[in-house]
């Protein structure tokens, strides 16, 4: 295993988080993995103003864990895993918890990163950290809004 091999895993619906993930992966020299829902989200599913939409129902149910379409086949090879997502209802979408709960991150460092239309991370770190083994190294989440490659490289040097 190469020393400190990195993975950027991300969930994105609109493309914002995907763009941020690609910038981060390039800056960190990391592999890229998209967290794809087993049941894709439609525009109606993502309508946060509709109390009956799929995303609203998921976010109102703390135990909801939407299925992920595929797994990282070689997760054991990675020392650092960046996990990216948009902020929904001031936290990460439930599918991110599904992803984190699907692997043993003991001895690894997990670094969440997010994009947002305007809100901060809220209780995201606290909630997601509970989805990982206690022996997981945890870094505070990184807000990727407005970051370019140079600012991401600077953040990586300062925090990892």
The biggest sheet amounts to: 6 strands, parallel
Strand content is 15-25%
- Overall CATH class: Alpha Beta
Corresponding CATH superfamily: Flavodoxin domain
Strand and helix layout:
Blueprint: E1 6-10, H1 16-28, E2 31-34, H2 54-59, E3 80-86, H3 94-101, E4 109-115, H4 124-129, E5 137-138, E6 142-143, H5 149-159
Parallel strand pairs: 1-2, 1-3, 3-4, 4-5, 4-6
Helix pairs in contact: 1-5
Summarize the structure.
Helix content is 28%, strand content 17%. The protein has 160 residues and is of the alpha/beta class.
How would you characterize the overall build of this protein?
The chain is an alpha/beta fold. It has one domain: Rossmann fold. It is 28% helix and 17% strand. The chain contains five helices and six strands; from the N terminus they run βαβαβαβαββα. It has helices spanning 16-28, 54-59, 94-101, 124-129, 149-159; strands at 6-10, 31-34, 80-86, 109-115, 137-138, 142-143. Strands 1, 2, 3, 4, 5 and 6 form a six-stranded parallel β-sheet that branches. Helix 4 (124-129) links the parallel strand 4 and strand 5. The protein is globular. The mean pLDDT is 93.
């Amino acid at each position: 295993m190469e020393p400190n091999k990195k993975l950027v895993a991300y969930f994105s619906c609109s493309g914002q988080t995907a763009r941020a993930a690609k910038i981060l992966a390039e800056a960190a020299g990391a592999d890229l993995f998209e967290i794809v829902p087993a049941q894709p989200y439609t525009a109606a599913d993502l309508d946060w103003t509709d109390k009956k939409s799929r995303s609203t129902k998921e976010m109102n149910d703390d135990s909801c864990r939407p299925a992920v379409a595929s797994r990282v086949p070689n997760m054991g090879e990675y020392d650092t895993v960046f996990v990216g997502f948009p902020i929904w209802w001031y936290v990460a979408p439930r599918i991110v918890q599904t992803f984190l709960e699907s692997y043993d991150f003991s001895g690894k460092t997990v670094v969440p990163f997010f994009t947002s239309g305007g809100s901060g991370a809220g209780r995201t770190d606290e909630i997601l950290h509970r989805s990982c083994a206690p022996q997981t190294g945890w870094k505070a989440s990184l807000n990727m809004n407005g970051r370019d490659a140079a600012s991401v490289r600077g953040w990586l040097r300062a925090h990892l």
